[in-house]
Write a structure and sequence with these properties.
Layout (H helix, E strand, L loop, with lengths): L1 H19 L3 E3 L2 H25 L1 H6 L4 H16 L3 E3 L2 H26 L9
Antiparallel strand pairs: 1-2
């Protein structure tokens, strides 16, 4: 249930993001849901590989290159989907930062609502 609510809230955050940045376009809420799913999958599978491959640059820039990696995964999701478009790197950078901040706020709210998920019930 928690993952479903998180997915719906992140989709809504993506729709709201289009209101703040004209360089990010989402056709409809269904496209936003698909985009949130693809961004989540890219962050789970592709982002760790990119971080590993660019580790020297990330260390050299004291972690600031992670913003570039986030923007690249955001733009990669745009290139994979028709209903979600990001026009340019700077829009992708802004969008990925705001989307990440929304994700942090949503995770904190869901932790308060559903409780801490790291506490497993006794067996």
């Amino acid at each position: 249930m928690r993952m479903l609510v998180r997915w719906l809230l992140l989709s809504t955050a993506l729709m709201l993001l289009t209101q703040w940045d004209s360089g990010i376009e989402v056709r409809n809420y269904g496209s936003a849901m698909l985009a949130a799913l693809v961004i989540g999958l890219l962050n789970a599978f592709v982002r760790p590989l990119l971080i590993l491959l660019t580790l020297p640059v990330t260390v050299l820039t004291l972690g600031l290159f992670l913003f570039v990696i986030n923007a690249l995964t955001f733009q990669m999701a745009s290139s994979l989907l028709e209903g979600f478009q990001v026009h340019g790197f700077w829009h992708a950078l802004f969008g990925s930062v705001v989307y990440s901040l929304c994700s942090i706020v949503i995770d904190a709210a869901l932790e308060r609502l559903f409780g801490n998920r790291s506490q497993l019930p006794p067996m």
